Amino acid sequence: MPDYDVSAALDTDYYSVFSSFGGVTAEDRAHWERARGFIDEALPEMNEYWDRAEYPLHLVKRMGQLNLLADGIDVPGLAPMSPLAAGLVNMEVSRGDGSLGTVVAVQGGLALRSIAFHGSDEQKDRWLGPLARGEELGSFALTEPDHGSDSVSLTTTARLDGDHWVLDGEKKWIGNGASGGVTVVWARDEEGNVRGFLVEQDTPGYEAEVIEGKGSLRAIHQARIRLSGVRIPKDNVLPGARTFKDTSKVLVATRLGVAWSALGHATACYEAAVQYANQRVQFGKPLAKFQLVQDRLAQMLAELTSMQLHCVHLAGLDAEGRMQPTQASMAKYHNTRKARLIAATARDLLGGNGILLENHVVRHMMDIESIHTYEGTESVQALLIGRDITGVGAFA
Prior knowledge:
Shape: globular
CATH superfamily of the largest domain: Butyryl-CoA Dehydrogenase, subunit A, domain 3
Strand content: 5-15%
Radius of gyration: 21 Å
Helix content: 40-55%
CATH topology of the largest domain: Butyryl-CoA Dehydrogenase, subunit A, domain 3
Structural class: alpha+beta
CATH class of the largest domain: Mainly Alpha
Strand order of the largest sheet: 2-3-7-6
Distance between the termini: 54 Å
Number of domains: 3
Order of helices and strands: HHHHHEEEEEEEHEEHHHH
């Protein structure tokens, strides 16, 4: 048994932004509570899966059964989820574990959303329900070994050959890319247009290997993929995706999800620090009675509250169809930076106990490093915001 019990949810909400005052409805809260129940089930297992770098696929299926994977996409047969409810689910799952939070981002935020935004009616009928229910796994293959931030320069190709598309190229860092299911592969056609293609992972020529040696998000598998003459039916192209702007539409929506995920990580770290400060005794009294500790907790709470306000406000804009791409960039830029700060402060406050997996903080601290990078690095988000401020692009 751990020496300290620091994993309980404290429902930190200093400004009441998650109350009806902040626009949270009974339906929103029901989705959140369902996610809380799932995390109560899953959290006792996650340190071990993270430590062994194993992917708990049974928990992915469980999330699908609980309708935690749709990420706000309307799927026939499933209860609808507002942008605020989707954010609360993302936050809560990430408060439990970053690998599970990334499952939501990959399965719902990227794969499911690509098909919902750009797929044909037949493609939606085939894939939306199974992906949202966790019956099938989905992945989103955009990043390449030599094109991460510069993803618009992707070199994977697609050419028509009779009634089939033929895909060639490589992808890297693809969540679920070697776990079975379907991969949305982004490639350039012969006219230079960026298109999305549905590739089932057992298709000949699709080769994927799990990337090993990660120090972050260890309980979800990312893959390096090689596409060598992969032939897929002509109808497997997403008809609504014809330019990189269509790809970006998916990324922008997911970017706000990353801000919510960062909030979940930061909440876990802050709440662990509060509980530890009340349980740990030094020099004859709990840490919570020391002025320096209270100052640190106050700083962490101030940053956490700022993160909450970013997320809730943008969820409102998103619900009204008024969220701008650079606003999502701002939320991601702000929240991942603040999450890193809160995690570092919490780790330091826990002292040596802060590096033990049983106290959870170090797992969140390492996983934040991944969300700080994916869906657009801090530098890329800053350049997007800077271009919006000045009207001048500074990417090259």
